[in-house]
Amino acid sequence: MSLIAMQKVAVIGHLDSREPLLNFLQEAGVMQISPLPLGRPTSPAAENFELYLMELKAAIAALDTAAGVKKSFIESFAPYKETISEEFLRQTAKEFNWREVIASLNRIGNELANLKNLEGKLLADRRLLLPFAKIGVPLDSLRGRAQIVIIAGSCRGKVLANLIQASKEKLTAGHLEVVGGDKTKTYFFLIATDSEIAAANALFEEFNLEKIVLPSSKLTPAAEINQLDGLLKKTAAERKAFNHELAGLIKHKKRLTYAYDYYLQKNDERLARERLAHTERSFILTGWLPKKQLSKLKADLEQRDKLIAVQPIEPEPGEQAPSLIENPGIFTPFELITKIFGSPSPGDMDPTGPLSFFFILFFALCLSDVGYGLILAGIAVYYQRTLTLSEGGKNLLNLLLWGGIATVFAGIITGSYFAVSLDSLPPAIGGPLKSAQLIDPVKNPLNMLIISLLLGLVQIITGLALGFYWKVRNREYLNGLFDYGLWIFFLLSLVLYGVTAALGMETNSLFSRLAMAGAALLVLTQGRNERGLLKKAVSGILSLYRTTSFLGDTLSYSRLLALMMTTSIIGMVINIIADLTRGSVPIIGYIIMAAVLIVGHLFNLVISVLGAFVHSARLQLVEFFGKFYEGGGKAFKPFRRETAYTIISPK
Amino acid sequence: MTIGLALALFGATFAAVFGAMGSAWGISIAAEAAGGVLSEDPEKFGKVLVLLALPGTQGFYGFLGAFYIMLKVYIVGGGAAIPLSAGLQLLAAGIPVGLAGFVSAYYQGRASAASIFFIAKRPDELGKAIILPAMVETYAVLGLLATILMVSWIKI
Fold it and tell me: What's the gap in Å between the CA of B57 and the closest CA on chain A?
């Protein structure tokens, strides 16, 4: 439950030892390499790993599309990763000619795109010609000749009669030949003499007609269509061939992912190398690692290679050590919540332990249903067994597992079992369940509201107490006493004063005096860092306004009640709807009822878990951390094996 | 049916309709942002969906408020005889969750959209991205709470 002490080290060695060292460090994954001011690219980019990675990623995506691979919702969070050895990865990446696969993929991609263009053009021509298919003259002779113009066009069927009439009136020697039509359009040729072109065009404008430019060809439209059909068949065959070739490449996908992960290592190695400083024959590497691992690393490195020396060094002035927190296994999942806020800065405390109790309690209260808790825990265990998970994914599922288990207990206390009314159960079952029920939030929300606010008060006071403890530990006794101790005293007196006043108890006057004393002490101490008596007094008095922020923080915990009710009432509604469907149709009614129950409760579970997680986390981050935790640390990012598609088994 | 009962049902209607409208609006704002991000990288669908769902809770809060009023007036059994003043009180009780839900869902949708863009650039920071819109939701929760407490304390 604390920050790990970090040590900065320098590793100095002969240039020949550099690559084995980087390899070793990447494998060990214990050290974060700091950039040195003299560091710069050592080899002028012999191989462009980033380009390789881009090409490989695109190729893998193309093959996934070709294979019709669709990632499920869960997989988009936790993609499957195969475990292989580092040796195998390197071997495959070297022997496998991935460049050839990518070249083929690019070629096929281009060809398919060209074919698609061509097919589009052919189909457009075919569509154009189709209405004129019955005309038995070559297309070229339909373009008109000396002194005659022929314009192909189409109009809406409705206007045809008017159009024929108008063409007879406006054109002395014109003719409108209807050649065919479909549901919406009629196709025709307008034939006119040269001298009446203007009048013919005017007709097109008047009736809003569409001019059709037929392709030029020596063939008749029907023969032309025939020829187009032949070409389309050919392109379809070619496309099929290319798709077949593409399908043949799918088998390389796995090896492409190996190559990707191999070059990912290489690229990380290059980036690490650029952080080193060099002389002609030697290099120096600086970085951070957990102090307790220093002696082992030093021994390992210096034994492996006589040309390497490891030396602990002082950090640069103003340099901040990276933060790494470590908690006993049971608390590790909750580091997730701490990391949402930010790692603790050196000298700050790690809030993971304290927050874990509150988080799990609040999460359980928000869900508070035995059924939902069991399902959530079951789902978490199932995915833990079946998915390949990152560190964060494992933590999240562990968190949900704990949350599910705690929810079962909260559900027993609130008497909620898939939101079924306990009164409707047979007394033999409902009776014992009912005697275990301590609170019914739906019937009596006020009690639960008071409990929620009390829990809030407990967490806020705990936050202040942690701040007090930490100041005392750092020997800032007065700051601890004034900024935390006095506030705890004042707030507790104030609350007890309120409670005793409401209950009309005799100790009331005692607490009122204590609260006043607390307020007076706060006014006297809170301005202690200001200069001048007036400023001290003003800032001391103003500090009492902080009471309102404590009040606001406490009220914020009322969300526990609201979320608890959301879960149980939506569950109740689902049960009511299911009950209504049961009697609707004989037999089928029961099937509908089952569907409503399953889909409805799963849906309620999902949105309730999301709400419970988000709001419980928020209470930690805003209301709890606000009292004692600042964050602001830079997370420790060791140089290690990062992979996208595989997991490299340790040697 | 008494006028009081009708007024109480108006309260339920107000809560349900405004909560739902706000959520529909808020989700559509987030969905527009999501569409843009997904066009670049469809793999982010899962993460984006989580953020997209956040402004949807107000619809449920509104429904919950409505349901609570319905329970109070026993509408399943045809409705209790609610006096006029109690009906007006229940109408008033429906307003906090409806109105706070309506406005907060819209603004939560905007916050979700911002978080969706944040996730587009930093897919590893889902935790932080979820917290931002959740800050807005607090006020819908308070509205719901006000409604619930009023309904449970109103005497009919």
Answer: 8
